[in-house]
User: What shape does this take?
Amino acid sequence: MKILVTGGAGYIGSHTCVELLNSGYEIAVLDNLSNSSEKSLDRIKEITGKDFEFYKCDLLDFEEVNKVFEAEQVDGVIHFAGLKAVGESVQKPLWYYHNNITGTLNLLKIMEMHKVYNIVFSSSATVYGNPKSLPIVEDFPLSTTNPYGSTKLYIEGILKDLFVSNNNFSVTILRYFNPIGAHKSGLIGEDPKGIPNNLMPYIQQVAIGKLPQLSVFGNQYPTKDGTGVRDYIHVVDLSIAHVKAVEKKSDVAGVHIYNIGTGNGYSVLEMVKAFEKASGKEIKYKICPNRPGDIPACFADATKAKNELDWVAQYNLEDMCRDGWNWQSKNPNGYEE
Ligand code: NAD
Ligand code: UD1
Assistant: This one.
């Protein structure tokens, strides 16, 4: 079975390529490299000892994407490609809507033209907005607070409408909680451009000495220590969830939606402590005002993924911090020399 991985050069995509290849799938990768490096593809080959085609191609270019489907007989698509920076999406909403939604519309039209009816889509826990209670279950009400989150919610709606119009489709929507960590080899990992927006890449860059200290966004939330609580999940566990989705759902028509998290919530200060332990480095921090749009706490009920995908997260917080530090310390400048 051959899977086209859009956004396969990126953080989660590259890890999923490794898990697909190690599980015996053939793959082809489509990416415009707008937020990634081609070197990640060499590293995937190094880790797995397997080869695959790469198409440097933009999903906004309908003709070029169509050519990829003409060249490759794929059985399904895992669709990671998209822009993901919340703050940037507030500054450039039209660009985010265009890239993420038009890109997905092109992909879906071309899939239908070529009778490729299986898709796994990267959604996010951001579609739950500020949840009414915890843990979050898949049927909670949906809302968003920024254009990035809205692109995820709209694409979920587009996929549901597509299935109504064409019952051949098998659509799996994975709502990720907070992916962190890296492959244990230290060859692939998250390589944010500029100053990181997300907590773990920021902590990692403080540990390596690239940034002086962490700003902790708020310590007056109604949480265990007043700082924000999230459900951090090892990126390899998240990647394995994609393989399970392909295995279990690709020939089951319908729209299948799953939370992909561990079910555990950790505070910002707990993350600082855990990373200090894993790295042996002190993480200096200062308490700052809340970040606009942040919610106090968020963690998953992932029972549905356990029951239907036979998927459960295997890695704990110590593993996530150890593997994140292994990647960061071996590659202080990411994929750049
Ligand atoms: P990433 O930026 O590392 O990977 C996305 C990839 O898509 C990049 O390689 C980029 O070059 C490519 N891309 C973007 N627009 C494209 C286009 N028009 N045509 C072709 N390629 C394009 O991000 P990631 O962290 O690996 O995230 C993957 C997916 O998961 C994204 O859709 C993201 O929104 C979603 N997601 C990520 C997180 C997270 O915390 N990282 C959480 C929830 C959901
Ligand atoms: C953020 C996005 C979310 C997106 C997700 C993955 C916002 C408001 N939300 O989620 O839509 O799906 O990334 O890309 O941007 N923190 C600090 N200092 C920092 C960075 C973060 O204290 O420098 C805190 C935050 O306040 C939060 C926690 O760490 O409590 C996690 O933050 P982050 O890693 O950015 O993830 P989310 O906010 O959950």
Notes: The chain has a mean pLDDT of 98.
